[in-house]
Amino acid sequence: NANQTCGTLEEMLGSRMRLHVAMLENYELEIQGELEGELESEEVKSRLANDSRAKSEEHHTKMVRLISEEVAVVVRKHKARGAEWYNEDDGQYESAMKVAMQLKQM
Asked: According to DSSP H, which parts of the chain are helical?
């Protein structure tokens, strides 16, 4: 009976982390999709057609790569935190949620 309760407590403590990391991973996918869409946008095509330097130096693809890498770093950092971190106090979880909202607004 105690073993069943421990497993349940561990699951409960890990649920905040799992939900948060899943949300960040979804945001990462959304951001990647939006960035890829921007690369194909008429605005980018027009800029590249009129700016040979930007096209040759691939500023647009470098920017997408840098943003994607920055988002991936944030997700990795949040995955690396133990479940305890998300449950120690509400201030830490609140700060994690603020980071998530900042990602969403990218």
From this structure: 2-39, 42-50, 52-57, 59-80, 83-88, 90-104
Helix (H) or strand (E) holding 40: none
Tell me the residue length of the chain: 106
- The letter for the amino acid at 40 is E
Report pLDDT for 25. Answer: 96
The model scores a pTM over 0.90: no
What's the rounded Cα separation, in Å, for the pair 72 and 60?
Answer: 18
The torsion angles phi and psi of 53, rounded to 5 degrees, stand at -65, -45
Nearest-angstrom CA–CA distance, 44 and 104: 22
Confidence check: pLDDT of 22 > 60:
yes
